[in-house]
Amino acid sequence: KQTSPDDYSNLGPIATLGEDLLVVLGDPPSSIELYDGTTFERLQMFIDPTPESAWGWGTGTRLLGIADNVVVFDREEQVVYVFDAASGALLHTLQSLPPEDPDGFARQLLPLGSNLLVGGAGVVNLFDLVSGELLRSFVDPTPGPGRFGRSLATIAGDVLIGGRREDAVYRFDGATGALVRTFTDPDHVDR
What distance, in Å, lies between the first and last C-alpha atoms of the chain? Predict the structure, then answer.
């Protein structure tokens, strides 16, 4: 049982859910645990749906608390699991959809309202967390050697997408998926 914030030091990634709940990589590493952030009482445990996995959850695991759900990226399986925070039930398993991401799925996780943006290199997918349905994909408008989807932000309901060596940030309408604007670096020098 965790008794103080210091006990979290070796547990890996930490996320928040709401204003007073902590989501942490558990012990054993095949679990994720939900704690009350004030009392440090464990409220829920989420078990890896693929326990035969060689590593369990650990290095490369990404956690997110969103809309009463705990979202976990499993690096080894290259999937995103969505759990109900109250019951611990697995609600959805989200997987990469075409166009395939050669550098891996789910490099970035970010809420957009009560939906989930999942960014990789070359594509960002928007999933409905209630149904698990893919709502839309944002694809690099200028495909090339950049890492489109590695940087995500939201502003006023829109989605900002950039990436390493992308040399631009693209603003997409969050409701329609239409490209709204491209921001480029005026001082860009080819390397």
Answer: 51
